[in-house]
C-alpha cells in the first residue's frame, strides 16, 4: 500500500519539481541556481566539451552523481557511474521511480537536443530538480506517518508530538522498503534499540534539527520568513509546528545526516585500517571475519554479497581473498539509509582528492608529470602521519602507460586514472570496477544470503595464520596491484580529443597480443616471480586474465 501511494504521487511530483526548478513555480531562485553552478563549475570545467562548449548526457549524469556525493553523500538511484547507459536513455528503469526521469529528460531535451548537449545552467537545473524530487518524496513518507498516528496534516503539533512524528519518520526512512521490519521496530522499542545500536544518538540528532529551526525563528525571524522556515503571523515564542515545519526538518535531516553519521563510518574505517598491515587498502577475508567473531559487530556480509558489491579482491595468489577497504566503506551494505530514490552513504573521501586535482589541472586531460606533482602533494589521514602518497616506481610507470595509450595525456574522467588513484590512495579511493560488474543492491534487496553465518566466519577465520604475511614484508614485494586491468572506460565523451579505448584495435592485433601475453605468462610462472616480488605492469596482469 505504501509503495503504491508513492508510485501514484511520483508523476505529479515530477511535473511540479521540474516546473519549480525551471522557475515556473517560482520556488527555485536564480540565486539558488547560481550557488549550484558555483559548486559544479570546477568539475564542469574539467569535462570534455563539444565544439559549443557543452557536455553530453553521460557527462551530465556523472556530474550530477558527483555533486550529490560530494555535497551530502547521497547516491541517486540510476545515476551511479557503474550503471550502463546508452545514447537514448539514462540506463536503468528505476531512476527516481521510472516515470519521473522520463519527464525530467524530456523537458531538458526539448530545450537542447542531444546534438547540442548541456551547459552549466542545464546541469544546475537538473540538480535543483532532483533536490526538489527528493524533498517531495519526503513529504509522501511524512504524510504516511501523520496518517498512521491519526494526525491531520492541517493541524499544528506540540514539540512532544513533533518528536513522536519524527522518530517514526526516521524508522521508515532508515529501513527503506522493509515494511515488515518497520512495523516490528515500531511495535518493540527494545528491538529498535538493538537493531539500530546508535538509535539514541539518532534521536538526539533529530532533536538538534528541531532546535536549529527554533533558534533560527527566534534569532533571525526575517531570514526565517525568507526561506520559509517560518510563516507570517507565527509567534516565535510559541512552539507549535505545522506539517510544513516538519517537512522542512526532514529535508534538513536528509542533507546533513551523512555528516552526523560520519563518526560511525570513521570508526569502521579505523578498524579496517588496523588490519591493513601492508598499506594496500585491503584486509584478508580471514581477518575480516575473525574481527567480526571477536569484537566487531559490523563485518558480517557474506562472501557472495561482498563479491556482488565489488568489495572483494580475489586476484592475489599470495594474499588470497581480500576485502577492498574503500569499496567496502562505500558499499550499499554500509549506506545507513536506503530510500526508494536514493541512498545516504559514508563520505567518499576520494572526492576531496579529486576536487584538489580538478582545481589544479582545470582541463579534461593532463600530462603525467602534472598529475604526479599534484597527487604527490596531496595529504591523507589514511597515510601514516598524514603524509603524501609515495608515487615512485610502479605507480609512476603505470601513469605513463595510461598516457601512452591516450596520445601522451591522461584522461581525468576515465577508469584507468581512477584505478591509478586507487592504487596511490587505496584507503581513500575505491577501486573502479568495469561498468555493470558491481551491484548497488541493499541488504534488503539482496535477500537472506547477505549475512555470513558464524560457521562460515569461523571457517574463514581459521585460515588467518595461513594467509597472514609478516608486516615487515615490503608492499612492493607483494602482488599489491594484482587487480589492475588495462580496460579503459571513459566517464565522459572524449571523442573531440581524439581518444579511443586502448583495446579498440584490429582483431589481428588482438590475436597477436593474446599470443604474446600467453608466452609472457608462461615465462612469468616458470621463473616463480610471484614469490620474489614483481613490478606490477600491465603485461602480467592481462596474462593472468587470459589464462583464467
What overall geometry do the principal axes of the alpha carbons give?
A: globular
Poorly predicted parts: 6-15, 21-26, 87-100, 501-548
What is the count of β-strands? Answer: 8
Q: Which secondary-structure class do the elements indicate?
A: mainly alpha
Biggest β-sheet, characterized? 3 strands, antiparallel
Overall pLDDT confidence:
78
Report the helical percentage: 40-55%
- Radius of gyration using CA atoms only: 25 Å
Strand order of the largest sheet: 1-6-5
Portion of residues in beta strands equals under 5%
Question: If helices are DSSP runs of H or I spanning 4 or more residues, what is the number of helices?
Answer: 23
- From the N-terminal CA to the C-terminal CA, the straight-line distance is 48 Å
